[in-house]
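JOB MANIFEST
job_type = single_chain_structure
chain_count = 1
residues = 850
[input]
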Amino acid sequence: MATSLTGAAEELTTLAPGVHEFITAYCVNCHGSAKEEGGRAFHALATQRSGDWKVDLADENQVTALREILDQLNLGEMPPHEDGVAQPSDEEIKVVTQRLTRTLLEREQATASTQTVLRRLNRNEYRNTMRDLLGLPFLAVDPTTQFPKDDEHGGFTNLGATLNLSDEHLAQYLAAVDEYLAMALQFGKQPESRVIEIRPQDWGYFNPGNRTPWMYKLPVGNKHFDIGSGRLPLTARIHMITYPRPFADQGGIQQPGYYKIATPAEAIRRLTHPYDPKMIPADLTKAMRIGLYVADSMDGLSAGGVNARRRLASWDLRDHEVRTFETTAWLAKGAIPFLHWENGPGETDHWMRDILKRYHTDVEFRGKQGKHAWHIKPPTAVPGRTIADVWAGPLVRIHDLRFVGPLPKTFTSRLQTRYLDGAPTADAVDLRAALKKFTRAAFRRPVSEDDFQPYLELAQQAQEEMGRSLEEALHIALKAILVSPDFLYFREAAREDGRLNAHELANRLSYFLWSSMPDEELFSLADSGQILLPDVLRDQVDRMLGLNKANAMIDGFCESWLQLDKLGSMPPDENQFEEFYRCDLEAAMRNETRWFARHILRENRPITDFLASRYTFLNEALARHYGIEGVHGGHFRKVSLPANGQRGGLLGQASVLTLTANGVDTTPIVRGVWVLEAILGTPPSPPPPDIEPLDPDVRGATTLRERLEKHRTVASCRRCHAKIDPFGFPLEFYDPVGGFRPSYYRKVHSREGNLRSMRKVNLARVDGSAELPSSEHVETPFELKRALLSRKDQFARALAKKLLTYACGRSMALSDQAEIDRIAAQLAKSGYGFRDLVFLIVSSDSFQKR
């Protein structure tokens, strides 16, 4: 056993016999005063006092060094298996790892906090909890838009140690609660639902005295409204938004509430127009698609209003066949719904000019693109004739747009019906009973008189001393509850055995699987204590995973584990990767990974599907990006893949391949690091601070390996890059947006007469060959995935650790490692099912203890 001597400034611990000698014999040659591989030096780790070798466990640097040595020994990564490097016996490694583990565990237990661990709801959990607590589904507004970004650690945004509470957080909570309560509290006489109809002539684009010269937006009598342009991203050309102008000028929606929104629409002349398809900057081989959006106010219709508008729905149109599209959403006062042709041609004069010069010489035309203006007046032009008179190109045809509401559900929120007993006015509310029920639900545990009495007194004080109405007093009391620590934080009491009680376990389970509060069934099982029974707990896991709310677990975990939240943080070059924007590929990439992971969970597929699979989930746009035929429409569906293809598994998905690029180029280093972190659970050490980063401009690609080889000749970089780069080289077959490329290339744009075109110029062929640290030779993504499959047990441990971290809301400690190993071993015995892994996590001591 290690003996600790604690002084005022240091905490000296004697290293167990043989540990210092092992480090000196097998580590210091590469990590010592003469050489610091990876920026690590262990020669001064211990000091000798009274014949014993001691380390200072009050020094976090020394603790970190011991943990790194232990991790590398457990992984078998060190000492490296290279010529001239002394190798310890298996027995030596076993003894040293046991002794190091014991030393670090004793330190961990001695420094463990005895205080209750508080973890704040992160933004996603807060939003979901407010939705379920107040009963506000289908919101088209997001009161959390201005919240500060949640701090993250290792990709996780739900770890208690990193979720601080700032003054800015509190200010935003106060503002958000007002907005939520305004939606959930609807006292007074309920107005009857009415129909707001936007007819073709009500869009405001048609002036009889000055007919629309463009075929971009045009009402045709009172029959229909035609839209001739549109493009994603919507933020790029804000004037392409098609909104009902008179309705917006009058202030939009006047009575907040839930509305059913319906629009009959069709695609016109998608494939039957007479023009050369190359002259129209849109992919008309795909179904035309419209999106229904809502702006919070006129601000959402402006160029800077990105955060003040959001998409409610998106639909594929039928050719020359009217279909009515519907959705239901909450619309706040001042909201302005609008429509947008999402995959149409951009609204520029350039392409329109070219079509007119070739096909319509009977029209006079004035146009402009940037600073360049032109005036075309053919001698054959007919005075007064406009583009609108002659246009024969593709159009989105809108027959009307209707909002029906407020719907009755506006006045039956959960807050109104369950906690206020459906009281029609504030005077009819039993304030004491309402606040007792509401605090129990908001605090997610049983409450005592002391818990809710302060809020009752606050409401009474607001009436008696501040002169507030009963409705205002109720609002004040509810608001105080919703910004209290008991609502914003998880409270888990310290107990001798460390176990969670029934309500704490129900909360942890619910926020793991749903990112939200427990429902009534889970509450009831917690009240009775039955949730602590293993069979009941398993039944609840199955039930909860069977509901759509379980998608929140997959979405949240994928954000953390795969770093999916970073997709789009380095936008691809718009000129080189126009299809990324034109086809809304960012959203499609994200959806592929989510649908894929949801399927693996729902069907209890083996976790090895994450490494290599014979299927994925695609819509038409992403299938075309992958070169897969036979997929039509904007909806996602399961698609079979060839056995030896380059797709399948996470490493074939464009989401991962795009977020591990920088928007312009790719590098094996970044993708190799991602594989080590996300798949193998062995993140490399950060580069030494004095090393220049690799020049990312490798589009010529002829010097890619040469540049990396130069980088690897630096002694302090060599060993790390020998582990990193081989996992990245086979992924060079994918470009910065995940497209497959046998060769590096660049795109060249050219113009021939009226036609603009783009062609790829191939450069050097991609060389994906690499030798993994295990001496396996790989050359292609398929071979890399096959090599990773041979490490499925290592992947199982890495995934179990990641999922357990997400489930518990804390970083895993050394004391959790035995539980992680047990979970991984049990998972292997049961066939590696992902759903099985979730239950093993939930039934583990790490999950059920504080």
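[summary]
The longest strand covers residues 257-268.
The chain has 29 helices and 24 strands.
exit_status = 0
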